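Obj: model holo form, ligand = protoporphyrin IX containing FE.
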Amino acid sequence: MESPQSGIFALGTASHAYLEFDGRDRPGLVTAIASLREPRTTMGGVNLVAGFRPELWREVAPDDAPRSLDGFNADIVGVDGFVMPATQHDAVLWLSGSSYDVVFETGRAVMAELASVGSMAEDMAGWPYMHDRDLTGFIDGTENPTLIEAPGIALVGEGKPGEGGTILLLQKWEHDAVAWESLSVEEQELVMGRRKSDSEELSDDVKPADSHVASNDQDQFGKIFRRNTPYGTISNHGTTFVGFASAQRPLAKMLESMAGLATGTRDALTKYTRPLTGAYYFIPSNDALQRIAGY
Ligand code: HEM
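Output (holo structure tokens):
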């Protein structure tokens, strides 16, 4: 089995940056990013996860690309005028570390190193809130697989094209904090489908069909591994959705379901949160990156 980029599974880091790039020299951007990895990960104590627009990776490394994987190339238009915008870029770097200073330093160095081949298009910072909650105040990640199970769920399996890689869906969701906080805790729990205090799932006779967890039923759509983080300022904030899967389908089906395209009813959480960005990236194995870098 090809070895995955380990930062995908490096839980417990307190500071994150998600940097999306567009290439002037697109194949050159892939080579430059593939070449970045080794010194940076060990020296700065920063995890670095690198990914690429699926079509660009396929062009540069056809033998290491999963068979069916597309970028987020068109908006998802849901019911009631709800839109998930497509804001695909050429590459992503996810930096994570123990504090923002090391993430900041590494991010600045990386940006300088890539300046001749591309430029930064999105720059998002993420941080944990109350240990494991998102900015709705609910525990986020309860139904995540354990670290023992996660590689089996997130990674493209042995013998398949793209082995040891994973598919990332990256989306920035702005929260309408005023509207959300105008709900009682009981009303918020009906939106989420879980109890706020301890994340206990509501029983089937109470949990609404349009609740967030019912809209993302992993028994129906397939399992994914989430590494979401809160982002933003006091007045403007939300959730960076960071979801990994071994195939695009579960992620794409969940988005369609949230937008109301599966049942005609939107995920209730989309009335209080709004996606501002949306992109898919292929995160190749370490071995595939090294082949591109010529190590
Ligand atoms: C504003 C954005 C979002 C917020 C604040 C949010 C928050 C949450 C919370 C609090 C839970 C319940 C606890 C847990 O199991 O983690 C949850 C569950 C889940 N979310 Fe989200 N989420 C967001 C967006 C998304 C998106 C975009 C997807 C899929 C593409 C997604 C997929 C899931 C899945 C699969 C579960 C577990 C469902 C289950 O099997 O019980 N979420 N989310």
